[in-house]
Amino acid sequence: MSNNEDSNDTQWPLWEVFTQPRDGKPHEHAGSLHAPDAEMALQNARDVYARRNEGVSIWVVPSNQITASTPEDMGPFFDPANDKPYRHPKFYSVPRAVKKRS
């Protein structure tokens, strides 16, 4: 049963699935599935999203546990990062002893 307050809801909780490819790239969202618990969500994710042995790691996260910004929040949420120039690589100079690649 879902954690939803609606007692008529008979669908299992929704889980978001993230997979990591073999080449060491970061995890990417692969899709969603319904499962009663984390263990079953992980097994189902393996069966659905890693059938051809293409991944090395799978994460499953309950959908209701994901907190995200919205497009309407873009200005107020991301603007504070603009006053921190040290976060950008161009803020730092390359020492003379370091050879630059062409």
Question: Which secondary structure elements does this structure contain, and how are they paired or packed?
Answer:
Blueprint: E1 14-21, E2 28-34, H1 38-49, E3 55-62, H2 74-78
Antiparallel strand pairs: 1-2, 1-3
In short:
InterPro entries: PaaB, PaaB_sf. GO terms for molecular function: phenylacetyl-CoA 1,2-epoxidase activity. With 102 residues, this protein is α+β, with helices and mostly antiparallel strands.
Walk me through what this model shows.
The chain has 102 residues and is of the alpha+beta class. The protein has a domain at 14-67: Phenylacetic acid degradation B (Ubiquitin-like (UB roll)). Helices cover 17% and strands 23% of the residues. It contains 2 helices and 3 strands; from the N terminus they run E-E-H-E-H. It has helices at 38-49, 74-78, and strands spanning 14-21, 28-34, 55-62. The longest helix has 12 residues, at 38-49. It is flat and about 65 Å long. Its EC number is 1.14.13.149. GO terms for molecular function: phenylacetyl-CoA 1,2-epoxidase activity. Pfam families: PaaB (PF06243).
